[in-house]
Design a protein that fits this description.
Helices cover 53% and strands 14% of the residues. It has 340 residues and is α/β, with parallel strands linked by helices. It has one domain: TIM Barrel (Alpha-Beta Barrel). The two termini are 18 Å apart.
Length: 340
């Protein structure tokens, strides 16, 4: 998705409405107000440089450098709990798709992918050296195998004394609980997992139909909820080597995690278990958990207004298609964008 060109008037409307509600600012410096506000409520920040959909090497390198800046700001800063990045922010989507498919790369592609791997590791190494927890975001199913492979390698290399690198598990996919369990069963090093229900649902279904393969998405919400809660349970039962972030706006899943922690004798403040919601959404979940001394961090997107619009649009699309407070809160984004 190319960067959207916004007229001055529309940009002003976006910035003063949905951007201010869901984003921290256009730069890390502008995020300080939101970071301090969250910290005053005992909630940490996850700095999320939300520029996406670019395809040129210059932007990939700039994004890589910006992600490292988020790590630098987070280092030694108890107000910032995690850094995060998307692999498509540092490498071409089509290249990740080809690697994921198992097809042989030509020489030029091998060279390009070598650069992607170098960027990926440089970010993870930077986080390790700065002692900052790092999320690798999940993406579409047809590029996820490449992302998984890179993340698994970095977990093995840098999760030495504790979980530094976290993979993201999208439980709206019917195969991901099995993947999660297999990783925990077969690996002995420390592991980190961010558990989400997931984005890209409509996109996944459309591609599966178009290409004639089985839809990877859960058959219904009940199946997704069941797998999500089982993922929480399985991680908590292996907490000696697994750290998790329960990334959800679902009150029942949040309560389930709280109950299982109590049953397993884990302290509310156990730093191996975090809860996370998006900035501007589900504050009642975030603040009630933090008030009870659980570890909580909000995703705080930032970046140029025109470049972050795709992120906001995707959040609207993924949440307006399901029931719950997330869809209600983000419905205004669709209305704003569709009126233009």
């Amino acid at each position: 998705m190319a960067k959207m060109a916004l007229g001055f008037g529309f940009k002003g409307i976006i910035k003063s409405t949905i951007f201010d509600q869901f984003c921290g600012g256009e730069t890390i410096r502008e995020c300080k107000k939101a970071i301090d506000l969250l910290a005053s409520r005992n909630v940490g920040t996850i700095l999320d440089y939300s520029v996406e959909g670019e395809e040129d090497e210059k932007t990939f390198q700039e994004t890589c450098s910006e992600i490292k800046r988020t790590i630098d700001v987070a280092s030694g800063n108890d107000k910032i709990s995690f850094s995060v990045f998307k692999t498509t922010g540092i490498g071409r989507f089509d290249l990740l798709a080809k690697v994921s498919s198992g097809k042989a790369l030509n020489k030029a592609e091998e060279q390009d992918y070598s650069i992607v791997k170098e960027r990926f590791e440089s970010i993870c190494k930077h986080a390790y050296e700065a002692d900052v927890h790092l999320f690798v975001d999940a993406e579409e199913s047809w590029i996820q195998p490449a992302i998984d492979a890179l993340t698994e390698q970095m977990m093995f290399k840098y999760n030495i004394k504790k979980s530094i690198v976290f993979n993201t598990i999208q439980l709206y996919r019917k195969d991901r609980l099995a993947y999660l369990k297999n990783q925990i069963k077969t690996k002995n090093h420390f592991m980190g997992f961010k558990l989400v229900r997931g984005a890209y649902m409509e996109k996944e279904a459309a591609r599966a139909k178009e290409l004639g393969y089985e839809n990877p998405i859960q058959p219904n919400k009940e199946s997704c909820d069941k797998d999500y809660d089982e993922a929480i349970n399985y991680c908590l039962e292996h907490i000696e080597k697994v750290s998790i972030c329960v990334g959800t706006h679902n009150e029942k899943s949040s309560l389930y995690c709280v109950q299982r922690m109590s049953e397993l004798g884990l302290e509310n403040s156990d730093s191996r278990v975090y809860f996370s919601q998006l900035f501007g959404m589900s504050d009642h979940i975030s603040f009630n958990l933090s008030n009870a001394n659980y570890k909580v961090a909000k995703y705080l997107p930032y970046g140029p207004v025109s470049a972050v619009v795709p992120y906001l649009t995707r959040r609207a699309q993924e949440n307006s298609s399901v029931a719950g407070q997330a869809g209600r809160e983000l419905s205004l984004i669709n209305k704003e964008l569709k009126s233009r």
